[in-house]
Amino acid sequence: MKEEDHLEEKNPMEDLLRMDRIPHIWCPGCGIGTVVTSFAEALRKSKIDLDKTAIVSGIGCTGRVAGYVKLDSFHTTHGRAIPFATGLKLANPELKVIVFSGDGDIAGIGGNHFIHAARRNMDMIVICVNNFNYAMTGGQVAATTPTTANASTAPYGNYEYSFSLPYLAEASGATYVARWTALHLRRVAKSMQEALGKRGFSFIEVITPCVTLYARRNRLGDGLNLMKYYYEKSEIQHGADTRTVDISYQGKLIVGKFVDKEKPTFLDCMNEHLGKVLGDKYKSYGVSHE
Amino acid sequence: MKKVKADPKGVLTGAHYLDGDYALAEGALAAGCRFFAGYPITPSTETAERFSERIPSVGGVFIQMEDEIASIAALIGAVWGGKKAMTVTSGPGFSLMMENIGLACMMETPLVIANVQRGGPSTGLPTLTGQQDMMQVKWGSHGDYEIIALCPDSPQECFDLCIDAFNLSEIYRVPTFIMADECVGHMHEKVVIPPAEEIELVERKWFKGPKDKYLPYKPDKDMIPFMVKAGDGHRFHTTGLTHDERGYPALNAEFQEVCVRHLVEKIRMNADKIIKLEEDEIDNAEIIVISYGITSRVTTRAVQQARKAGIKVGTIRLITVWPFPEKRIKELAKKIKAFVVPEINYGQIVREVERCVEGQAPVIHIPHCGGWVHDPDEIFKAIKEASK
Amino acid sequence: MSEIRFSGFGGQGIIRCGLIAGKALSLFDNKQATMTQSFGPEARGSACSSQLVVSDDRVLYPYISAPEILISMSQEAYEKYEPELRDDGILLIDKDLVKSKPSRGKIKTYSVPSTRFAEELGNRIIANLVMLGFFTAITRIVSPEAMKKALPGLVPGRFLELNKKAFDKGYEYGKKILTEEKKPKKK
């Protein structure tokens, strides 16, 4: 058998996934798996040292991602993946740290941590899978549920305003902001790859179908119908003003790379400032002194 | 258990005039703590201030987080990133930390949390003393687990016990607490910091085996699993869910039994090794006063008075409050006329004493709602009453 | 055992007084000294105070109940804390800032123009050091050498000499008063 044939027999993601934990818990038609596939592709293409890459998740359907990816991986508490990742990164600055979690985790219960990590330009990538509802607990209304959409705790429809996550991220200080749908497999992977090559706080939102709960409750049909919706309603607008990208119920989905800029990270700022103030007494932290 | 000498960089050797909060920061630095995340809260803030001032020249990170939840989460992350880590807080902040204290227990993460207690409940008495979180520290997070909690009675002990706390947390891979109080935290006294070579530290129980053979929750012979840090190539997983020895979720009763029993037993079965008490004139005592923290100093004055009055009174100072010295109290209960328990709360540790005494002797509680320490006279009167 | 209270208004360096005296006693005079202070809004307000309990053995009760030495650098602090002073105690006040009532019991009152002296030395901020020098001379509870040794780290390095000068000024003034006090007795 030729080597190439042998390779074909292997699951292409085998070295990046914990195969001993497959099958995963996600429903058929759920988009989280495809986002993980894009992530695996991005990891491979970026050629970063996977031994120096860590992934942190919170709680929820997407919170389970950390458990399937074969990196140093942390499944933490609800909403606290970002501060956990902050400690991890600061303790060991040579790590590339990725937070992979859902909208409830990152923008709901963990919203405060999200804006503060962005404000500090903490060197990490936050991938937020947004499925418009709390899926793990049965489809409750979320901070991201479009107004008027139905949810199990908004049985007459949601009457609250929802967060526009790219706008929130940019306003808080993120240096890379992109949004895609799970249908944009390659573009998601490309954004992830770009973020992996960057320093600073990167935010990628991936709009993802929740077939079992959100779609069923709102009578939006099966996976195929949802794909069609994503296909027809998404509009790529790179560099769009994030103030204009909010999502209305079954409305247009403006996607693309909205922000990509450079700014010193938390540790850059700390080292530069303390170096300036303390002079020789201070040795830069997290940088090799050899 | 591998012992090492302290890194001189963090050790401010010499005699100083410090308050308890500052002494906590110095203890942490001497113990090798190089990561501190915290949120300002009276009366613990001075520890964060001191650490933030000292750490740039020692080498490490101080970060003021957005709240106490973030602080404790960052601590757990930092420990898995390879650092020794600490935070300080007080009542309201301590309440906010509870969920992630459970995560630290579940992930078997060694770290140190100091609670400089103030009067509660709620915002209570921010600038005045209390000992009202003594049960919360043991039971505050949901589920079954064990922790270690130490009680300093002076700035000197804030320093000394901080080092002990780091060592115990590393030995047992468990969050370890320093339950100080406003009085001790804010009082200035002489604190002697020994030379680095006299400070013995316990090194983290690093895993040295092949990279792909690491099991984060496989107990070693001493019950304690090995640790690694992220970035060393083990590609390990850890979770707050009930897990197997690989750290993979294992959501059933069978694994719950293994996992939770381990968390509890690694402390309970080592209680004798962990517990530190200070006993005085116990042998001929008819009355024993059990106290901890600042209350034990005030107690000593009352006891001196009682002994002058001819009462045979001994004292036990709980340096370790959790695990509770169950065995010792049970043993003494058989021969003692009465126990007296003063504490700055409305009845917390006294319940543990009562549980251990099992009705064999009266247990007289001297409650105090907080804001001040006991009047020694009050304790003296209780001793006198008990001796009748 | 002695109990001492330093009092004045926020910004006068009252807490610093307790720290310097406590450090001097604990580190250089072989005593045990526990210093506590008022915190919160009251510490920043008009009557701020720091307390010192001094003993040859371990201090068991950290707070003071009936001080035998009260130092007051403001009228309000004087009004607030004078009633608790033991009636055989010593009262030290700023001559220009505190108007004292006729003393009760055997209380001995000594006054020093600490703020005026400090202004003469170039900065009213060192009035507390004048008062500390005065306190050292009058009470003799702590040695002047120990007090001066305690200053580095507790006063800004570049003002160390000025602070020592202020201390000496208060100390000499106190000694002079004591000598004068003795004179009539010899007659």
TrEMBL record, chain A:
InterPro entries per UniProt: 2-oxoacid:Fd_oxidoreductase, THDP-binding, TPP_enzyme_TPP-bd
CDD domains for this protein: TPP_OGFOR (cd03375)
All residue ranges annotated as the Thiamine pyrophosphate enzyme TPP-binding domain in the record: 67-206
Signal peptide: none
Pfam families reported in the protein's UniProt record: TPP_enzyme_C
One function term, GO molecular function aspect: thiamine pyrophosphate binding
BP terms from Gene Ontology: cellular respiration
Keywords from the UniProt entry: Oxidoreductase
Protein name (database record): Thiamine pyrophosphate enzyme TPP-binding domain-containing protein
From TrEMBL, chain C:
InterPro entries assigned: 2-oxoglutarate_synth_KorC, Pyrv/ketoisovalerate_OxRed_cat, Pyrv_flavodox_OxRed_cen
Signal peptide bounds: none
Keyword hit for Oxidoreductase: yes
All copies of domain Pyruvate/ketoisovalerate oxidoreductase catalytic, residue ranges: 10-172
UniProtKB keywords: Oxidoreductase
One GO MF term: oxidoreductase activity, acting on the aldehyde or oxo group of donors
Keyword Oxidoreductase tagged: yes
Transmembrane segments annotated in the record for this chain: none
Gene3D superfamilies attached to this UniProt entry: Pyruvate-ferredoxin oxidoreductase, PFOR, domain III
Record's protein name: Pyruvate/ketoisovalerate oxidoreductase catalytic domain-containing protein
Species: marine sediment metagenome
